[in-house]
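agent> Task received from the user: take the single chain below, predict its 3D structure, and emit structure tokens. No templates, no multimer pairing.
agent> Plan: (1) validate residues, (2) run structure prediction, (3) serialize to tokens, (4) report one or two observations.
agent> Step 1 OK, no nonstandard residues flagged.
tool_call: predict_structure(input=
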Amino acid sequence: MTDSSQIQGGSAALTDFASALAEAGATSLTTRQQEQLAERLLKAALTRWEDAQLRPRLLAELTAALTTEAGADKMRDVLSSQIFTLFGKALESSQTTDINDVAGVLEVPPLNINAAQAQVWGTIILRYVLKVEPIASAPADDLLDLLTPAIQRYLAGGL
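)
tool_result: status=success, residues=159
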């Protein structure tokens, strides 16, 4: 049975993960380096998942998302709302930011943002949950080099 401190720790881990991605995205846009957006987002994600203290809490959240409705609701909220709100705050926006707002800023369809999320989460599941080789033991820098162009295409409309 999971106690409330584990649940809160997991929630904090998921919030930390979302905050890191939001900050990475906002930095790319505020420094006018949109061509580095995918690399910064993916690096922020992999850095969190490579953290030996944070990974078990992130795994618990992901497992809950895949096996319980409450976990799925929490993950859905993070992926479809919280991350975009944090992104807006990182950009110092006074308005609520959602996937459509971010898509407008990036000048891509909202579905492209979901495609980028799917690429990242597919990598996370193969690497950290299923531990499929060779992706499970590949250096994180190799994954950055391999995946960045595909994710960048989703987020920048083919840059």
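agent> Step 4: summary for the user.
The helical segments are 4-30, 37-50, 55-67, 69-90, 99-106, 110-129, 140-156.
agent> Done.
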